[in-house]
Design goal:
It is a single chain. This protein has a single domain, classed as paralog of FGE (formylglycine-generating enzyme) (Alpha-Beta Complex), CATH 3.90.1580.10. Helix content is about 15%, strand content about 15%. The chain is built from eight helices and 16 strands. The protein has a four-stranded mixed beta sheet. A three-stranded antiparallel beta sheet has the order 2-5-16. Strands 3-4-12 form a three-stranded mixed beta sheet, with helices on one face. The N terminus is likely disordered. The structure holds 2-acetamido-2-deoxy-beta-D-glucopyranose (2 copies) and calcium ion (2 copies). The site of one 2-acetamido-2-deoxy-beta-D-glucopyranose has 4 residues, from helix 4. Keywords: Membrane, Transmembrane, Transmembrane helix. It is found in: Endoplasmic reticulum lumen.
Length: about 350
């Protein structure tokens, strides 16, 4: 990968592309974000859970198939391959209403004994802004192009900020530190699969045509927040105006037109496609991306995305990671049905 591509990746995405390899010695830890100024509470943004929690484990909605406009001719980040806009047809499929949660992943691990890649590697990438000083002091390496990513020993889905942290107080938050392979294995366990990028983007748009966000073109209609993103100055200060400086419990924000929650924001979501920035402008039917590649496509942005660094909480936006990568802002959801050939 060229130096300029690496630089544009770093500059373009505060959400970052933490990948194994490419580390630099002695990175200075940055300032710690202050506590959130909670202007919008969960109550104001969200709604009470309508279903008993066990039912949520497997809750999916039908995403009606048909033709939709994928990508954009007005790319927010041209280098990401958001263009050209093209007419894409997908068959109907079912999609998890929300990101896979810690509780769901725990059920999977309890049932199967599965060990994630981050557990095997012994570390995973954590945004330094959410680490304790004690953990930060012990780290001497970071990602060269994105120094806010620190490889934390012992960080994995059970210990999202490393040893000493746990998920017991956030079982209904999205699971973190799962690689593409981990995500695919979880979905297969439930006879589901990861969505193709086309399916994911069709789902994101919620039936609206050629809009920036799942709910329209305005980021904060009527002054409300519709997704868990970053407010303030990335990476130094997150005001938490949307109610959350880290992940939020799934379904804390309103759903889109298809009944899908947090389809942008909260955590990035893995798709099944290999990454390329070159797309045909021709009409396509149930596209599945390139036959092979180095990176997998992730969609939707995360709680770390701010327009200044990571304008990637749009449906057409995209980014990538190697399939063995894992981080504190990357999760997934599964689909079933549909057509992939
Ligand atoms: C998984 O097993 C642990 C240990 O037995 C238990 O505490 C936990 O509640 C189980 N999780 C789920 C979601 O069933
Ligand atoms: C793509 O499909 C649309 C709608 O069916 C049609 O109007 C257009 O001519 C098609 N374009 C190509 C290049 O086939
Ligand atoms: Ca937020
Ligand atoms: Ca998401």
């Amino acid at each position: 990968q060229s130096e300029s591509a690496a630089a544009s990746k770093a500059a373009g995405c505060g959400c970052g592309n933490p990948e194994r390899a490419a580390v630099v010695e002695n990175a200075e830890p940055g300032p710690v974000p202050a506590e959130p100024a909670v202007k919008y509470s969960r109550g104001a943004n969200g709604r009470a859970l309508l279903y008993p929690l066990p039912y949520l484990y497997f809750m999916m909605v039908l995403v009606p198939g048909g033709a939709f406009l994928m990508g954009t001719d007005d790319p927010g980040i041209p280098a990401d391959g958001e263009s050209p806009q093209r007419l894409v047809y997908v068959d109907s499929f079912y999609m998890d209403t929300h990101e896979v949660t810690n509780r769901q992943f725990q059920m999977f691990v309890n049932a199967t004994g599965y060990v994630t890649e981050a557990e095997k590697f012994g570390d995973s990438f954590v945004f330094e802004g959410i680490l304790s000083d004690k953990v930060k002091k012990e780290i001497t390496q970071a990602v060269a192009a994105a120094p806010w990513w620190l490889p934390v020993k012992g960080a994995n889905w059970k210990h999202p900020e490393g040893l000493g942290s746990s998920i017991t107080d956030r079982l209904d938050h999205p699971v973190l530190h799962v690689s593409w392979t981990d995500a695919r294995t979880y979905c297969s366990w439930l006879d589901k699969r990861l969505p193709t990028e086309a399916e994911w983007e069709c789902a994101c748009r919620g039936g609206l045509k050629d809009r920036l966000y799942p709910w329209g073109n305005k980021l904060n209609p009527k002054g409300k927040h519709y997704a868990n993103l970053w407010q303030g100055d990335f990476p130094n200060y997150n005001t938490g105006e949307d109610g959350f400086v880290k992940t939020s419990p799934v379904m804390s924000f309103p759903p889109n037109g298809f009944g899908l929650y947090d389809i942008v924001g909260n955590v990035w979501e893995w798709t099944s496609d290999w990454w390329t920035v070159h797309h045909s402008a021709e009409n396509q039917s149930n596209p599945t991306g390139p036959q092979s590649g180095n990176d997998k496509v992730k969609k939707g942005g995360s709680y770390m995305c701010h327009k200044s660094y990571c304008y990637r909480y749009r449906c057409a936006a995209r980014s990538q990671n190697t399939p063995d990568s894992s981080a504190s802002n990357l999760g997934f959801r599964c689909v079933s049905g549909g057509t992939v050939t």
